[in-house]
Amino acid sequence: MSGPFSDLTDTLFADKSVLSESYQPEEILERDEEIEAFSHALQDVLFGREPENIFLYGKAGLGKTAVTKYMMSELQSEVFEREEVDDLHVHEINCNGKTLFMVVRRLVNELLPADASPFPKRGLGTGDAFDELYAQLDRIGGTHLIVFDEIDHLDDVDTLLYELPRARSNGHITESLVGIVGISNNYTFRQSLSAKVKDTLMETEISFSPYDAGELRTILHDRADRAFVDGACDESAIAKAAALSAQDMGNARQAIDLLRVGAEVAERDGDETVTDDHIEDARTLVQRGRLRNKIRDQTEHAQYILETIAKLEERNEVPARSKEIQEGYERVAEAYGATPLTTLKSIQDHLSDLHMLGFLVRHERNKGLSGGQYYEYELDLDPMIVLETREEIVQAAD
Ligand SMILES: Nc1ncnc2c1ncn2[C@@H]1O[C@H](COP(=O)(O)OP(=O)(O)OP(=O)(O)O)[C@@H](O)[C@H]1O
């Protein structure tokens, strides 16, 4: 029997899941100093003392989550070994898009006994949710470490950071100990806290810096060893993925993505080894994917404007002035059954935003002797990406 899948054999991957987002590495590489600072801050837990509060800062993909997961699991094992230490409970919650009430309620529900009814969504306030949280922490006892990921996204973070670290000294809890681990992409987070919180919050701050090419190479090497069958990935492909990501933001997630997509390209082409060329192709694919998402994030009218400029570009009618773009835009908006924005000023505002966001190149022109200046615009990306993305969006909406 032969069918579309009958010829397929996996010649590249030994375990592809090692390159997936959900994979938690057993070993954390190139973060010795951060791990050392983290262990130091956590050591009170092993002596039954109140934990220090810990804040981790750093841009995306620098290992904050991976290091935290690793530290929590190492600490759990150590607590388990030392029978004299009370139980350790670790709770993790992502704060993005949540109110303080939602976060505290979620924690309460995690702590409640399995047969208890959940904390009500309505009718009670944040103060009530905190009271229930304290009651549950004391009912369970031991040490509780609560990891708040994207803590800077929380609406009323001041209250959280004023309440929880003081729960014991204020007598709200007596049978348990609680510590906070806050994770944030925003280095200025601490400055945004109220003076009252800033002055009293005792914490250790650990900052994660971008990985350099050598560090990324070590991380990728380790992944490649586990992910690929022997000899299926060139050393220079690893070096290339590491170098490209180091030049960008030093982001390990991006480096791993390049390696995975590069391997998918090799697989698609029927090649038995991942090479530099595959990583180069992966870069283009990953960049296109990012651009597509960025276009999708724009408002409907901003997208019409981008589509208009892409069409002008296809007819070699760029760079174009805002008046010309407005005329094309009106036709595009109407073709989608939308009512176009009417003033030239509103189009110019959109053009200026799209320029700031890096979608457009802007040329400043002078009107010769009559004086005065105006701008002309063209896309700073391949018009096909805009047109294809728009088509996908329209088809998905049908
Ligand atoms: N030092 C490291 N050793 C091994 N793998 C790592 C290391 N740093 C990061 N990674 C891997 O890179 C990816 C991104 O890391 P992680 O999710 O920890 O980043 P983050 O700093 O928490 O970023 P974000 O804020 O975007 O979540 C994960 O797959 C993680 O396993």
TrEMBL record:
Keywords in alphabetical order: ATP-binding, Cell cycle, Cell division, DNA replication, Nucleotide-binding
Span of domain Cdc6 C-terminal: 306-390
One Pfam family this sequence matches: Cdc6_lid
Domain AAA+ ATPase per the UniProt entry, residue ranges: 50-234
Keyword Cell division included in the entry's annotation: yes
MF (Gene Ontology): ATP binding
Binding site for ATP: 211, 223
GO biological process: cell division; DNA replication
Record-linked InterPro entries: AAA+_ATPase, AAA_16, Cdc6_C, Cdc6_lid, ORC1/CDC6, Orc1/Cdc6_arc, P-loop_NTPase, WH-like_DNA-bd_sf
Keyword ATP-binding: yes
Function: Involved in regulation of DNA replication.
Similarity remark: Belongs to the CDC6/cdc18 family.
Name of the protein described by the UniProt record: ORC1-type DNA replication protein
Annotated organism of origin: Halopiger xanaduensis (strain DSM 18323 / JCM 14033 / SH-6)
Lineage: Archaea, Methanobacteriati, Methanobacteriota, Stenosarchaea group, Halobacteria
